[in-house]
């Protein structure tokens, strides 16, 4: 394509650009929350860890999504719902979506017990509250300009704490959070406001109770969810605002309507509202992130954390490629005259706004944006924030970017004559400069040449130091430079050892985007193609980069000492056009103004990531992310001297460069009524092995109305780094490069306390201004490539755009590649892949830590840290551990106490304890009856009441077994198995035996039946040799009757045909073996097993069923057929696993929503549930003899399982009001409830014929549990499932499909540990799952 700079970057007028520098409103203060407290009519929630308000009846209903809501529930855990909450463990540690309607300003494990804060709530119709809510809504939603709420619901969590387990010797944490949710409604539309005051969030997540001893903290969740989906086609709509700790921290620092800490959302309407919509006035969040379609989640996390779209969320946003600098005449720019006046005032100008606007209304003292009458942009009314230079305290403010608040320009304050002097000097010259502090002990002072005076302005003067002999390579080959012996570096990120080392044992020390090369004296790391850096750290070409760090200073500004420690530094670099932005937050005012001319502080990032001319290299290609930048600045004419040390400390897990800055010395004072102008400049950098030096002079102007004064300073820079000296050097390499810096801006946002720098940098040859025109757009940044693309120059002004690594697209538009979803990552089996913009990172699962390669996770041996009680033994397990008290002690292993009843069986122990309590006068307590072995007697009776009941071996009452006093006691013990109906063979055999008087003669025929009652293939007359073959119905096969002495060869099946039909293209017959079949929407997948391990590489599609939604699935082991239900087609179908088989629909009428399916391979019948008709039916495997077994007392039947050996049927009903698991005979007789306590959403169900266990997976309790067929012996296998749907057992393992992971997960039956996981390449919900054996399982009775 052809680059046209005029078309790509139209210049913006100066007056349009200046509002981008206008500061936005300050952060929300605690006193600016909506009024609350008992005096305002607030009700108080009970103190505790998991409390609920009960139903709060609303005087007027509000809207949530499309529902009309008349009551609300407020919970301790930072959440509001339209229905009562489930148990805390069912939702507080899980992400969105929730299984119930949720409005969550801060969903975490909050605890208000023991005076740890309080939760207040009320409905309010006061004009004061409604007016404030209306102003917020109208600000954030321009289309709601006439919104007038009639009522509001307020909930305030004031100074609440996080749940903590008491630890010996450790005081409780003092961290407290304050936040507020306001729901404002006019009965047709409802808006939610979330408010987080400055300093109001002191903890950002909580630790899950079930694994509290594991060092894991889950970030708080913020967002909305409509609740459980009504069908199987997807999850309920939800809107998520946070996913990481950093995104939670950003809640009080950022906003989506221009006021840090205030967030607004449209959450309900009488008009169609597919999903929650965020406010759009604070920088265009909703424009950057379009709400999701129906049934799909919308995540606002990208707006809080993304690289490319950070509208209103930081001082650099993803739309900065659209921000243009002021136009200027090229000739004027060449003379250094292109600059912008940025007034720096101590207080907001009380006068009128520029452009003739009227003053702000007095009622806008709060930080609400002020609406313009014409419906134009909102301009924030700001308040000044004064910082004490000694305490560094003041009103907390959040960071913003220069383009956030688009306010009008402000007229300059009137300047007095002599206004350049500091306060109190009355125009006298400043005192002589004092001697600066001693140089920082970690760095060497850079002394100017003794004869050097004030150098002239213009191009930099070369440094007065000897030129070193060796020069590094600076071409695009990105070779690594050598180490110069006399130059040191204090970095500890990476070092090359002097001894001979090879890549074989050191490849892990290179970046994962680098390759390792062995040389004669050692090895070196080199970045791969499309990446650049020094080999130890490599960044993608063309992608934006970020820098985070801390700044400390000990300065004397004029006569005033100023100190600050560890204030935040953030920088954002657009590498494909050389732009760099930097901000230092919360810096005291005198220091910030004094540092305004000191652009080299931010200029370091311009040099590191400068746009490169052909054959020239920016700084990061040499230094990587480990270097030290020393800078000495001498101001003229006062002679003040500053020393600056910037130390790079490597890349963090998200590839952000970390840097620490220390400033010390003296700087001239700059009054608040002056503006600072820094002209474009050029400076020369001299390169040697592992060192870069520069010396230059800068002019800057101080402007006050028509008065201008020019000042200057001399700056000496030295950059040292570790380089690899083993690689051969090229024959010729340039020793000098020129850095051209244009569009230089420096300003101080008074109300935020943020010092900002912005500049554009280009690196090339010294004196490189004589290059021919036109310049290729890749070299001056005028190209049209995306911010995440690399500009590739062509002939003349032609160029092409190539998306940076980790992105895909045409170069003009690039989208992030999700390496985690596509499988292009290197995370190990016990690691989780976390997608990042342009990259990814690996995180170990709880209980694991990274191995030396940084990708594989190995088990942490927690027992080595002695976590258990001294009287307990520790047992390490993969990813976890367990503690067990030793014999003679009792407890949970973390706490053990001597057991006075050691040696007694449970029944004897309970009997002893009950008898001891009966000694108390008036006590009435059942004393359990034990047998001679100390075990519970199955039948227990209370002598005082006459009631009797059955107990299991653990002494727990069997549900439904208790009888009334005076009635017959129940029958205790396992129920009698339902007898199997007699077959034709068995009935014929009994008839003949009766006819023969019970003892047939040697020549009398009696049918021979197998264990299932079927005719054996070979039949004979008594003990004679007269035999023949029969078919499955007992009919003689013609021509098979033998003569005495010979036995016919009878086979159970006929031989297969020698010629088979051609298989369908969408059916792939699987090989013989053991494997899993799973339903995934419009296809059935095939996942082989190697023992019990998932052979993920061999997984493939077995059957494509376009237009279907396959839910239930099962397998007939006798005829090798797979059966499935289809809720889209409302059918039940089957297909043989033999080549050439065609799918066959066997039931196509009388179905509404067929879900669960079970095959009885013995009786040749199938059973299924229909959640639409609330029925359970059965039929023969060909669809004949259909019969409805149950059609009453069913609400949401789902899973179904059959035990063909004992003749029992089991099914689940996830009725939210009364979930249950039921059983009956296969004929529909003896129906009874098996489990109805402590279950939530029993989705999956399986019967293991080998262990005789009935097991289920519960998406409500998150547990996998098992019980015996009679309901006894219930135990938990695994208690930390995500969202299981279907379940099957095989060879001591459970395999279940999961809707959170969209995959198949295996669990060991004995240990309960997760053992394996398979995530299909095509990610969507998985439904039913079944196991295919090469034989029919016999089981045991």
UniProtKB/TrEMBL annotation:
The lineage of its organism: Eukaryota, Metazoa, Chordata, Craniata, Vertebrata. GO terms for cellular component: basement membrane. This is Nidogen 2. Coiled coil: none annotated. Residues 904-972, 982-1050 form the Thyroglobulin type-1 domain. The keyword Membrane does not apply. It comes from Equus caballus (Horse). The gene is NID2. It comes from the Eukaryota. It holds the Pfam family G2F. GO terms for biological process: cell-matrix adhesion. Residues 774-815, 816-858, 859-897 form the EGF-like domain.
């Amino acid at each position: 394509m052809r680059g046209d700079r005029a078309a790509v970057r139209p210049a913006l007028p100066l007056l349009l650009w200046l509002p981008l520098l206008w500061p936005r409103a300050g952060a929300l203060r605690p006193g600016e929350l909506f009024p609350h407290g008992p005096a305002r009519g607030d009700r108080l929630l009970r103190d505790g860890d998991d409390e609920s308000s009960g139903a709060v009846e609303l005087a007027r209903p509000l809207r949530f999504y499309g529902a009309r809501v008349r009551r609300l529930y407020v919970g301790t855990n930072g959440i509001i719902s339209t229905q009562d909450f489930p148990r805390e463990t069912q939702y507080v540690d899980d992400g969105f979506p929730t299984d119930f309607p949720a409005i969550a300003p801060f969903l975490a494990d909050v605890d208000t017990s023991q005076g740890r804060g309080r939760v207040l709530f009320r409905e309010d119709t006061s004009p004061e509250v409604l007016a404030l809510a209306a102003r917020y809504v109208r600000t954030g939603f321009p289309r709601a300009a006439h919104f007038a709420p009639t009522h509001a619901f307020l909930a305030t969590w004031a100074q609440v704490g996080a749940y903590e387990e008491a630890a010996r010797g450790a005081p409780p944490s003092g961290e407290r959070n304050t936040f507020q949710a306001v729901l404002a409604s006019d009965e047709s539309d409802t808006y939610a406001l979330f408010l987080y005051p400055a300093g109001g969030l002191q903890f950002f997540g909580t630790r899950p109770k079930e694994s509290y001893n594991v060092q894991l903290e889950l970030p708080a969740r913020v967002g909305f969810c409509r609740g459980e989906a009504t069908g199987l086609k997807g999850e309920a709509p939800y809107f998520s605002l946070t996913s990481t700790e950093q995104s939670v921290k950003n809640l009080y620092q950022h906003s989506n309507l221009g006021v840090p800490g205030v967030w607004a959302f449209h959450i309900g309407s009488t008009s169609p509202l597919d999903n929650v919509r965020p406010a759009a006035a604070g920088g265009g969040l909703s424009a950057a992130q379009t709400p999701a379609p129906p049934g799909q989640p919308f995540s606002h996390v990208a707006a809080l954390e993304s690289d490319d779209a950070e509208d209103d969320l930081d001082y650099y946003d993803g739309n900065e490629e659209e921000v243009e600098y002021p136009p200027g005449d090229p000739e004027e720019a060449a003379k250094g005259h292109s600059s912008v006046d940025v007034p720096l005032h101590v207080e907001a100008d009380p006068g009128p706004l520029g452009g003739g606007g009227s003053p702000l209304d007095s009622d806008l003292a709060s930080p609400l944006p002020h609406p313009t009458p014409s419906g134009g942009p909102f301009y924030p009314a700001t308040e000044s924030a004064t910082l004490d230079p000694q305490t560094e305290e003041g009103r907390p403010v959040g960071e913003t970017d220069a383009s956030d608040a688009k306010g009008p320009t402000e007229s300059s304050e009137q300047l007095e004559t002599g206004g350049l002097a500091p306060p109190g000097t009355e125009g006298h010259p400043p005192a002589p400069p004092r001697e600066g502090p001693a140089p920082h002990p970690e760095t060497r002072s850079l002394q100017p040449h003794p004869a050097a005076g004030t150098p002239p302005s213009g191009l930099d003067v070369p440094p007065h130091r000897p030129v070193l002999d060796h020069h590094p390579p600076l071409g695009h080959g990105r070779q690594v430079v050598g180490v110069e012996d006399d130059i040191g570096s204090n970095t500890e990120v990476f070092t090359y050892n002097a001894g001979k080392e090879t890549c074989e044992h050191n490849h892990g020390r290179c970046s994962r985007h680098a390759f390792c090369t062995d040389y004669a004296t050692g090895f070196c790391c080199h970045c791969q193609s499309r990446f650049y850096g020094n080999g130890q750290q490599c960044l993608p070409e063309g992608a934006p980069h970020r820098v985070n760090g801390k700044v400390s200073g000990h300065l004397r500004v004029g006569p005033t000492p100023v100190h600050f420690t560890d204030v935040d530094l953030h920088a954002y670099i657009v590498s494909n056009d050389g732009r760099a932005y930097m901000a230092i937050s919360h810096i005291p005012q005198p220091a910030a103004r004094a540092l305004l001319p000191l652009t080299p502080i931010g200029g370091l990032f311009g040099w590191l990531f400068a746009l490169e001319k052909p054959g020239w290299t920016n700084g990061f290609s040499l230094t990587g992310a480990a270097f030290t930048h020393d800078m000495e600045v001498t101001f003229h004419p006062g002679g003040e001297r500053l020393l600056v040390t910037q130390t790079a400390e490597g890349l963090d897990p998200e590839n952000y460069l970390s840097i620490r800055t220390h400033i010390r010395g003296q700087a001239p004072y700059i009054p608040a009524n002056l503006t600072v102008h820094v002209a474009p400049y050029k400076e020369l950098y001299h390169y040697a092995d592992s060192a870069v030096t520069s010396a230059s002079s800068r002019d800057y102007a101080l402007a006050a109305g028509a008065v201008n004064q020019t000042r200057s300073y001399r700056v000496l820079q030295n950059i040292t780094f570790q380089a690899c000296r083993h690689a051969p050097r090229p024959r010729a390499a340039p020793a000098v490069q020129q850095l051209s810096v244009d569009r230089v801006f420096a300003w101080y946002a008074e109300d935020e306390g943020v010092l900002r720098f912005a500049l554009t940098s280009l690196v090339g040859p010294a004196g490189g201004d004589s290059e021919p025109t036109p310049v290729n757009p890749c070299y001056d940044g005028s190209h049209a490539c995306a911010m995440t693309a690399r500009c590739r120059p062509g002939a003349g002004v032609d160029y092409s755009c190539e998306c940076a690594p980790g992105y895909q697209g045409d170069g003009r538009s690039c989208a992030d590649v999700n390496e985690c979803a596509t499988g292009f990552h290197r995370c190990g089996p016990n690691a989780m892949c976390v997608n990042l913009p342009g990259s990814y990172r690996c995180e170990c699962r709880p209980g694991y830590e990274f191995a030396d390669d940084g990708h594989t996770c190995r088990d942490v041996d927690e027992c080595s840290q002695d976590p258990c009680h001294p009287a307990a033994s520790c047992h390490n397990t993969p990813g976890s551990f367990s503690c067990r008290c030793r014999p003679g002690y009792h407890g949970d292993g973390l706490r053990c106490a001597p057991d006075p009843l050691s040696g007694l069986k449970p029944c004897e122990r309970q009997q002893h304890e009950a008898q001891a309590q009966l000694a108390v006068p008036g006590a009435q307590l059942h004393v359990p009856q034990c047998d001679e072995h100390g075990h519970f007697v199955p039948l227990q009776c209370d002598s005082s009441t006459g009631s009797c009941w059955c107990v299991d071996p653990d002494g727990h009452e069997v549900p439904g077994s208790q009888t009334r006093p005076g009635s017959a006691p129940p029958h205790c013990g396992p129920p009698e198995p339902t007898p199997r109906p007699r077959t034709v063979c068995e009935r014929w055999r009994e008839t003949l035996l009766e006819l023969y008087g019970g003892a047939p003669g040697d020549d009398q025929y009696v049918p021979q039946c197998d264990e299932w009652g079927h005719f054996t293939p070979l039949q004979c007359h008594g003990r004679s040799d007269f035999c023949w073959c029969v078919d499955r119905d007992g009919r003689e096969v013609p021509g098979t009757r033998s003569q005495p002495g010979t036995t016919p060869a009878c086979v159970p099946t006929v031989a297969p045909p020698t010629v088979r039909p051609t298989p369908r293209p969408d059916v792939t017959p699987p090989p013989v073996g053991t494997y899993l079949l799973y339903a995934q929407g419009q296809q059935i997948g095939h996942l082989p097993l190697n023992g019990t391990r998932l052979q993920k590489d061999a997984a493939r599609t077995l059957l494509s069923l376009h237009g279907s939604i396959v839910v239930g699935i099962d397998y007939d082991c006798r005829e090798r057929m797979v059966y499935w239900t289809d809720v889209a087609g409302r059918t039940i179908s089957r297909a043989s696993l033999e080549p050439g088989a065609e799918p066959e629909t066997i039931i196509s009428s009388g179905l509404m929503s067929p879900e669960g399916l079970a095959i009885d391979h013995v009786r040749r019948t199938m059973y299924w549930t229909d959640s639409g008709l609330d029925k359970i039916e059965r039929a023969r495997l060909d669809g004949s003899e259909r019969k409805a077994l149950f059609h009453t007392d069913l609400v949401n039947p789902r899973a179904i399982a059959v035990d063909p050996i004992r003749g029992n049927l089991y099914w689940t009903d996830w009725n939210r009001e009364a979930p249950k698991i039921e059983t009956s005979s296969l004929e529909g007789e003896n129906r009874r409830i098996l489990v109805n306590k402590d279950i939530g959403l029993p989705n999956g169900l399986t019967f293991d014929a080998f262990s005789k266990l009935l097991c289920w997976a519960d998406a409500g309790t998150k547990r996998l549990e098992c019980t015996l067929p009679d309901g006894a012996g219930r135990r938990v296998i695994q208690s930390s499932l995500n969202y299981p749907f279907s379940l099957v057992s095989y060879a001591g393992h459970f395999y279940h499909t999961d809707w959170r992971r969209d995959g198949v997960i295996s669990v060991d039956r004995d240990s309960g540990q997760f053992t394996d996981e398979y995530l299909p390449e095509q990610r969507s919900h998985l439904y039913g799952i079944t196991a295919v054996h090469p034989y029919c399982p016999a089981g045991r009775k």
